[in-house]
Amino acid sequence: MRTRDIDSHSDMARITGALRDGHDDVASASKAARAVKARSLRDNARAGGLRFEVYLPPNIAEWLLDRIERGVFADPSEAVFAIMDEHRDLERHADLRDQLLSRSVEAAIADPPPSLGNFEVEEHLRELFHKPRPTPAVWRQSP
After folding, report:
1. DSSP conformation letters of the chain
2. pTM of the full predicted structure?
3. How far is residue 117's CA from residue 44's CA, in Å, rounded to a whole number?
């Protein structure tokens, strides 16, 4: 089932049925369900915008909070707005995006992380799996 074929809530029933009957894989059904959800929100978003919650992993969260402390952004929502707007502007310039990707790959090749053996990787993953995850910080807008 292609994403663009989904037009209504009855399509969601077809997706669910396809999953139940084994006619579609989970990834395709999940993608189709997200397309239905996006389509159902479009009219309201067009009129009033879109509010959503996002989880940032620790390294990105720290980067963002540093920018807020330095006054680059007022809060996380302003950062998301600015960064999404910048990304939208870059969509028109595939050559610049390709060059940015190329430079990122070149930088990673020039400064590779230390290599680990299979044993060390497995041990690290085992520790991460069994270690309780800390509760994420939550930024709440002031009234």
Report:
1. --GGG--SHHHHHHHHHHHHHTSS-HHHHHHHHHHHHHHHHHHHHHHH---------HHHHHHHHHHHHTTS-SSHHHHHHHHHHHHHHHHT-HHHHHHHHHHHHHHHHHSPPPP--HHHHHHHHHHHHHSPPPPPP------
2. 0.61
3. 51
- 35-80 residue pLDDT tens: 999 999 999 999 999 988 899 999 999 999 999 999 999 999 999 9
Per the listing, tokens 């959800």 go with 37
d(CA 56, CA 137): 10
Residues contacting residue 5 through CB under 8 Å, at least 6 positions apart:
11
- CB burial of residue 29 (10 Å; 0-12, 13-18, 19+): buried
The answer, yes or no, to whether residue 29 has pLDDT greater than 60, is yes
pLDDT at 1 over 70: no
Residue 81 contacts residue 52 (beta carbons within 8 Å): no
CA pair distance 45, 38, nearest whole angstrom: 9
